[in-house]
């Protein structure tokens, strides 16, 4: 979608991502597909880091970055399109951004506004982006579905205390992950396991526990505080 809009507009295309690591990764991937150096035709801006230039056509940002930019430039001069990616991730910043962009569109009928998500309440958001009488068009795309098995594994220890997520709960998540991964890889040695936890501290602690408790698993951490790689793999 970003390259498509960039080919139809002369101004910049802004793409919001819910997290810094996603904005950086998406920009690097699109630059790689475009065959251009990061920061030229494709760039990104996150808190504390910026890689854009005068030739940048597609810029990936977090919702917070775009909100602060709109405080200084409410009309988004030079921007022809805004894509809100992962629109199902409801947050104050995202909701406020959608409201402000809706007001900008009332003043600028040349501004293209797109919301994307795999699990979005499309009908509801279409009326927010458009109006009740003239909702925004909805484009559906069917993708392959894969089987999902749910296993309930409640923790014997409290999940939270006055200091936040407890060490005992992190131990439980690590044990549950190791057990599930062991069962899965016995039937499919190429399988991967994805674990969601709320913050960088929790990610690092669970990763450390998995490295100590398992043998042969390649444990990778993914969060916004990971240093930027020196080069593309």
TrEMBL record:
InterPro entries, per the entry: Helicase_ATP-bd, P-loop_NTPase
PROSITE patterns: HELICASE_ATP_BIND_1
SUPFAM superfamilies: P-loop containing nucleoside triphosphate hydrolases (SSF52540)
Keyword Cytoplasm: no
Taxonomic superkingdom: Bacteria
Statement: the UniProt record of this protein carries the keyword Glycoprotein: no
Residue span(s) of domain Helicase ATP-binding: 1-138
Keyword line: ATP-binding, Helicase, Hydrolase, Nucleotide-binding
PANTHER family the record matches: ATP-DEPENDENT RNA HELICASE HRPB
Protein name listed in UniProt: Helicase ATP-binding domain-containing protein
Protein's organism: Microbacterium suwonense
